[in-house]
TrEMBL record:
Its main location: membrane. One of its GO terms (molecular function) is ATP binding. Belongs to the ABC transporter superfamily. The lineage of its organism: Bacteria, Bacillati, Actinomycetota, Actinomycetes, Streptosporangiales. It comes from Actinocorallia libanotica. It is an enzyme of class 7 (translocase). It is found in: Cell membrane. This is Nickel import system ATP-binding protein NikD.
Length: 263
C-alpha cells in the first residue's frame, strides 16, 4: 500500500488548436508532471498566471475543459482515479474550492447550495453547523449570491465544499482580492482541514500564503513542475532552495529587497 493519498504520475494536459484551414496544433498546458501528497499534508502549488495550476486541479478532479487531452495517471489511495471512482468520491472524499465564486449558482439561495450532497434528513442541521464554522449568520442561507459580499461568498464556497468525510481538499486561489484578515481566515480554515486529517492542495499566486500553511511548495512554470521545495527553505537569501528558479522567484520579491550585486 502506498503511503500517499494522491499520486500524479507523468501527467500531461494538452489542447488541440485549429489555426488556419486544417492546421492542427497541440498546445501543452501541463507537461509530464509527477507529484505525491501524503495524508494530512498541506502542499502548495505556486506559479505565474498560465503556468498550469488550474489545469492540474481540473485533471485530478476530472473536470478538464472539453477540448483538453490528458495522459498519465492519477492515483488516489494507490488506485487509479477513474471517472467512476470520481463520481462517488467528488464532494465526499475529494472536495474542490474553485478559483472563482462564479461557480456558485446565481439563481439558487446559498443555503440550498450548501445542502447539496448532504443527507436530506440532517441537511438543515449540518448547514447551521457549517455556517457557524465559517462565520455566516443563519439568515444568510436564504439569500442569493448577488446579495453577499466577496468575503461571504468565499466562506459559502468553503461551506459547500467541505464535508466531514473529506480526505483531499483542492483549493484553487482561495485568497485573491481578499484583505489581510480574510486571507488569514481562509488559511486558518485550510489548516483546520489538515489538522482534521485531510490533505490540502493549495493553489496560489501568493507565496506568503503558501508558506503560512504548507510544508512543501511545488513550483510550476510554463506547464512544468520545476521543483518541490521545503517551505522552510524560503528564508533569508534562499540559499537552501534546490532549484535556481525558486531562488530567483524568492529573491525577486519586493519584500526581500536584494540589492543588485549582493550575491
Ligand atoms: N480550454 C482551454 N483551451 C486552450 N488552452 C487552455 C484552456 N484552458 C487553459 N488553457 C491554457 O493552459 C495554460 C494553463 O492554464 P491554467 O488555467 O492552468 O493556468 P493557471 O496557472 O491556473 O493560471 P492563473 O493563475 O491565471 O489561474 C494557459 O496557458 C491557458 O492558456
Ligand atoms: Ni488558475
Amino acid at each position: 500500500m502506498t503511503p500517499f493519498l494522491l499520486s500524479l504520475e507523468d501527467l500531461s494536459v494538452g489542447f488541440t488548436r485549429y489555426s488556419g484551414a486544417a492546421r492542427v496544433r497541440t498546445v501543452t498546458g501541463v507537461t509530464s508532471l509527477s507529484l505525491d501528497i501524503a495524508p494530512g499534508e498541506v502542499l502548495a502549488v505556486i506559479g505565474a498566471s498560465g503556468s498550469g495550476k488550474t489545469l492540474l486541479a481540473q485533471a485530478i478532479l476530472g473536470i478538464l475543459p472539453a477540448n483538453a487531452t490528458v495522459s498519465g495517471r492519477v492515483l488516489f489511495d494507490g488506485k487509479p482515479l477513474d471517472e467512476r471512482r470520481l463520481r462517488t468520491l467528488r464532494g465526499r472524499e475529494i472536495s474542490y474550492i474553485p478559483q472563482s465564486v462564479s461557480h456558485l449558482d446565481p439563481l439558487m439561495t446559498v443555503g440550498r447550495q450548501v445542502r447539496i450532497g448532504l443527507d436530506p434528513r440532517t441537511a438543515r442541521d449540518r448547514q447551521r453547523t457549517l455556517f457557524a464554522r465559517y462565520g455566516l449568520a443563519d439568515d444568510v442561507g436564504g439569500r442569493y449570491p448577488f446579495q453577499l459580499s466577496g468575503g461571504m461568498l468565499r466562506r459559502v464556497l468553503f461551506a459547500t465544499s467541505v464535508r466531514d468525510t473529506v480526505r483531499l481538499v483542492i483549493a484553487d486561489e482561495p485568497t485573491p482580492g481578499l484583505h489581510a484578515d480574510a486571507v488569514a481566515e481562509v488559511l486558518r480554515h485550510l489548516r483546520e482541514l489538515s489538522e482534521g486529517g485531510a490533505s490540502v492542495l493549495l493553489i496560489t499566486h501568493d507565496i506568503f500564503a503558501a508558506l503560512a500553511v504548507a510544508r512543501r511548495v511545488a513550483v510550476m512554470h510554463a506547464g512544468e513542475l520545476l521543483t518541490v521545495e521545503e517551505a522552510s527553505a524560503f528564508t533569508g537569501d534562499g540559499d537552501g532552495l534546490k532549484h535556481p528558479f525558486a531562488r530567483a522567484l524568492w529573491r525577486a520579491l519586493p519584500q526581500n529587497q536584494f540589492s543588485p550585486g549582493s550575491e
